[in-house]
Specification:
Layout lengths: L1 E3 L3 E5 L6 E7 L2 E3 L3 E2 L3 E4 L6 E5 L3 E7 L5 H5 L10 E3 H5 L2 H13 L3 H13 L9 H12 L6 H8 L3 H12 L3 H17 L5 H8 L4 H12 L3 H7 L4
Antiparallel strand pairs: 1-8, 2-7, 3-6, 3-8, 4-5, 4-7, 6-9
Helix pairs in contact: 3-4, 5-8, 8-9, 9-10
Length: about 240
């Protein structure tokens, strides 16, 4: 739950996981052009995104696990990668979502708001559950060392590279290689926030050296990490 008592501008780094956002007061502009829908779904992203929150904006965010969003939207996640779309369009339940927004605005406290959104989400989860092979692939990538390759992952899962990539993109939204790259970048950002030097950040996050980290970071954000963190409020 995030509330903005005054105008606030921030940037959001690339993200491996999808998120559902329920704005029940005020509004938010994305990348200086589009207004975010009151109930929105954003897929995994490999680029930077800017938000401008109007005074009084209040939003409840539901963060999905890497394999969890697919059980909610029930459509290929790669079709939603890098996009923010209206949940009305995605789920086809405009009246119910309008009613939920009204209930969130009228709720007595945030605990009640969280309960309302949890009930809404849980009622729409697929009974089939998550894909066990892709869940195993995600777990492998999270534990992989820098010297391990995608070939090692395909051998571990028991699928061909093309079959694994198709299935992974459908469930997670990006390829295994892209997922590993985004996960490494997010890990480096968390380490950087602790104040350690960039060389330590690079090695601890899984990069071979600092130059590889800077190159990846510049590709994702358009600037070097030292400049970026010195000039941006990051979420």
């Amino acid at each position: 739950m995030i509330e903005f008592p005054w105008f606030y501008s921030d940037v959001h780094l690339p993200e491996t996981d999808a998120v559902a956002a329920f704005s029940f007061r005020g509004a938010c502009r994305i990348n200086q052009t589009d207004w975010a829908p009151p109930a929105a779904f954003t897929g995994p992203r490999d680029t930077l995104r800017a938000h401008k929150h109007r005074e009084g904006h209040a939003v409840l965010l539901a963060m999905f696990t890497s394999v969890g969003a697919y059980t909610f939207v029930r459509s290929p996640l790669h079709e939603l990668a890098g996009l923010t779309v209206s949940l009305e369009e995605l789920l086809g339940s405009p009246e119910e979502l309008r009613q939920l927004t009204e209930q969130l605005n009228a709720a007595i406290d945030n605990r009640q708001r969280i309960s309302l959104v949890e009930n809404f989400l849980l009622a729409r989860l697929s009974i089939s559950g998550t894909d066990p092979l892709i869940s195993a692939a995600v777990a492998w990538l999270e534990l992989a060392t820098p010297d391990q390759k995608m070939d090692d992952l395909t051998k571990y899962i028991g699928l061909s590279q093309s079959a694994l990539e198709r299935r992974f993109r459908r469930v997670v939204g990006v390829s295994p290689k892209k997922y590993a790259s985004l996960m490494r970048l997010r890990r480096a950002v968390r380490l950087q926030a602790t104040g350690v030097d960039l060389t330590t950040v690079a090695h601890s996050a899984g990069y071979f050296d600092q130059s590889h980290f800077i190159k990846d970071f510049r590709r994702a954000t358009g600037s070097a990490p030292s400049f970026f963190f010195g000039h941006n409020s990051v979420e």
